[in-house]
Amino acid sequence: MTSILILNGPNLNLLGTRQPEVYGRTTLADVEALCRAHGDTRGAKVAFMQSNSEGALIDAIHAAKGVHDGIILNAGAYTHTSIALMDAISSVELPVIELHLSNVHAREDFRHVSYIARVALGVICGFGAAGYPLAMDALMGHLAAGS
Ligand code: CA2
User: How many domains does the chain divide into?
Assistant: First the structure.
């Protein structure tokens, strides 16, 4: 069975509690439930994690090698700053889909820069929580095409 790691970065634990005009009213627990339900319909196992710490996200990416088939990563603001996360992704050689709830390209200039996109299979942004199942389907399609 395909195993997907869904990693969420800094401040995403606050989802649904503040700035609903930007990020919607869906909580991270709702997103997790959505991903697990979608995994059930597609025959995929889902591991779901959130951390505010860059190091913990890097450790989770390293630990994914040989355990998960691919990663969906909403790295939050680390997307725009973290060469260390980019290097971690390169080192594990797993397909990674970069995900954002908001359309980062319609926002401030500093959100237009992504270190993750340089090493990602692809990027999904602007579809809110619905982006997570879209990313799961994209990742599974990629894995099926390669096997
Ligand atoms: O749109 C996204 O998913 C982001 O990754 C969210 C990050 C932001 O820095 C990225 O540029 C785009 C911010 C996550 C903060 O999440 C909050 C949720 C609710 C209330 C406050 C922050």
Answer: 1
How far is the C-alpha of 113 from the C-alpha of 105, rounded, in Å?
A: 9
Distance CA 38, CA 52 (A): 25
Mutate to test the pocket of ligand 1, among 100, 103, 105, 113 (most ligand atoms within 8 A of CB): 100
Q: Which two tokens stand for residue 10?
A: 């800094």
CATH code assigned at 14: 3.40.50.9100
Strands 2-8 and 70-74: parallel
Q: Which residues line ligand 1 (CB under 6 A)?
A: 11-12, 14-15, 18-19, 23, 74, 76-77, 79, 100-102, 104, 111
pTM, rounded to two decimals: 0.97
Domain of 32 in residue numbering reads as 2-145
Is the pLDDT at 54 greater than 90? The verdict is: yes
Q: Of 78, 100, 115, 132, which residue is the catalytic one? A: 100
- Calculate mean pLDDT across residues 80-88: 98
